[in-house]
Amino acid sequence: MAKHKVLIVGLLLLAVLFFGCAGEKQEAPKAEVKTITIGVTDKITELDPANAYDFYTWEVMNNIMGGLMRYKPGTTELEPFLAESYEVQDGGKVYIFHLRKDLKFADGTPCTAEDVVRSIKRVMELQGDPSWLVTEFVENVEAVDDYTVKFTLKEPISYFLALTATPPYFPVHPNYKPDAIDPDQTAGGVGPYKIASWVRDQELILETNENFFGEKPKVDRIVVKFYKDATTLRLALEKGEIDIAWRTLSPVDIQSLKGKEGLQVIEAPGGFIRYLVLNGNENTDYPTKDKLVRQAIAAAIDRQEIIDKVFMGTMEPLYSLVPNGMWSHIDAFKDKYGDGNIELAKQLLSQAGYSESNKLKLELWWTPTHYGDTEKDVAQILKAQLEKTGMIEVELKSAEWSTYTDYARKSAMMLSLFGWYPDYLDPDDYTAPFLKSTANNWLGYPYADEKMDKLIEEASKATSTQEREELYKQIQEKLAEDAPIIPLVQGKLTVVAKSNIQGITLDPTMIFRYYLLDIS
Amino acid sequence: MSSLKAYIVTRTLMVIPTVLILLTLVFFIMRILPGDPISAMVGQKVPAEVLERMREEAGLNKPLVIQYIDYLKGVFTGDLGNSMIWGRRPVMEEIMDRFPATLELTVFGFTISVLLGVLTGSIAAFRRGSKADTGMRIYSVVAYTLFIPWFGMLLQMFFGVYLKILPIGGRITPGLAPDHITGLYVLDSILTLNLESLKTSLLYLFLPSMTLGIVLSGAYTRILRNNLIDVLSQDFIVAYRARGVREWKVIKHAMKNAFIPVVTLMGLQFAILLAGAVLTESTFSWPGMGTFLLERIEYRDYNAVQGAIVFYAVFVALISLIVDVIYALLDPRIRY
């Protein structure tokens, strides 16, 4: 029995070792440091604004860097940030920014106009993924003096200020490699926080940047913990491992956390939209080539049902590609078709030559993980809604993300579900990439309409907001008429936090500003 | 021992064609599937001409055979290439960022599974027919059939949310990672005498390695029980007992003989363990290779997937080799 005993003793020792530790309180060092821990299911892909092109990394950049302009927190209004003021010259072709004189990087190195120019030219030369946000528009950028930056544009662009609020325009520390992408660089730029440590896929620790020109954040230390899925994120919040659960809890979890003692659930409209692409490619034999078919589908969809059954109120209905709350938005699809209008759908289908005995056969594609695990339910509800007409038969098909994007570009999907995060907050970013014939190849449905192209072109150059608003309304009406894309829902942002956390400010930029947070 | 040496050399050389075949299969299968890393990464937004340029830069426009030869050249010079998405970091760097986490989890999970399996299997065999035997047999079946994410979540809810004594996910309390020496937090904490990090990393390891350990222990319970019973009824044991040899010596001999199939199983389990680690890693947000590999498959990051698989293959082959050597040492009759 001696062997047996040795084993038992061994196991007991192991258990004692683990449980002995388990009794210890887990706490980060420096307990006096005001710290907030945020949990996310996103990840930082790379810390170089010349190549990073995903929502979460841009959020981190907005906390450790900044641009010449920024969105006023809580609004979609632009205001000067690293610049004190700006001038527009030459009919909108030249923008001159006057920098603040107290700009410093986190280590105290001054940030001058040369640094801004160096950083932007670096983006242009490296040609990383988001570089088109600069190269498509900027002809030249130069430092007039230490505190003046001059942009010469290829042609006047009405939303150029919004572009300067995006990370490719953020000045970066001279430590960034000048001639290569620097994915692990933590030197950052000019922002309220600096990176104290970053362990890929594991944790990010931010500390107050003592050299920041603006108001110092109220919280000394922000810790971001990266989780693999929504379930673990929720459990971590309930256990108290994190103070804030940010993107993305599942709709079911949000629902069940509402009203839970010690927690607050904060919601705000987000700029993230979901839509259905109807392939009207003339070179295919898809029935969706017929405008009447597309219109019938647009009429049959009931957005509220999708929201109630799948998203449990964490989304809102969307009747245009321009999101709710953005200037120029109109409920174009609702005005034209209503919502879940089966009668109208039947009428349009009959006109297109379909009947209950000669059903319209559709293939609806969805992708399992890229848009979260609710996607299958969205597809199933859409199928049910379309089949409710009695004149449509829907076959569901799915492919994982890389195959899905490939199929899209090859025009291999008849109906497909997609989503969109904005690069800059302007109706242009919600219309031109989808509807402009020179920009929408990725849809696989090269929707091309001369009138639409002209409207988009004019809207991107018009200088008066009133004129632009009028043009975007016409664009939305034309979109509803042609229906190559049907907007479905718009995302709401949801933060679930412990009730002692203050300063959570959400807005359609969807950037969570850690520097506004406080803890009591 | 010369035949053992020859055996080791042969087994080591066998690793090369095995890895090469695997690498070739992965290389072509990945490329036959529709989609490529560039369009998966940038999704929809980037203009078509930019996408084309990026594909060209990544060498994806070259004929498949040329791509294959280029890749093989790299592998033989120890260069697994660069990741094709997000920063284009060297694949070896990406692997070394995550592999220590997987190795740590695997070693702990493996140790727990063997210890639990041996303990429960021995109890069942030595108390054959008793309630303890029935209990252990039920344990083995239940453990074997447990679904890792479900079982892991149960443990998270009980020890994390309800008792609040163990962390839900992650590898260590932020800011407490020990100085990097091997990347294995437990070992690095010991080497740097950082007790706080040691405690914390063990706490974070507890639930994931227990989950993995318990699920994998069931197989050991069964195999050890059956073999021990078999060995205990053999003539030499009966003879030992008849001659009045002390019981602990009998057990020692019985265990040694019953252990041979367990060692075989240990080798086989290692590959299963790595697969189980994928599920465990995602349940406990463990930043290891499993979730990295899954993510990169989804994004068709050819070089990262090939690199990770080659790395795994070499690793599993080495473990199998070690197991085979132990096996040969345990049973001198075994020579190839």
Automatic annotation (TrEMBL), chain A:
GO CC terms in record: ATP-binding cassette (ABC) transporter complex; periplasmic space
InterPro entries the record matches: Peptide/Ni-bd, SBP_5, SBP_5_CS, SBP_5_dom
Protein name, as recorded: Peptide ABC transporter, periplasmic substrate-binding component
Similarity-based family: Belongs to the bacterial solute-binding protein 5 family.
Subcellular localization: Cell envelope
Residue intervals of the Solute-binding protein family domain: 77-441
PANTHER family the record matches: PERIPLASMIC BINDING COMPONENT OF ABC TRANSPORTER (PTHR30290), PERIPLASMIC OLIGOPEPTIDE-BINDING PROTEIN-RELATED (PTHR30290:SF10)
Keywords attached to this entry: Signal, Transport
One example GO MF annotation: peptide transmembrane transporter activity
Pfam families assigned to the protein according to its UniProt record, in alphabetical order: SBP_bac_5
Domain of life according to the entry: Archaea
A GO biological process held by the record: peptide transport
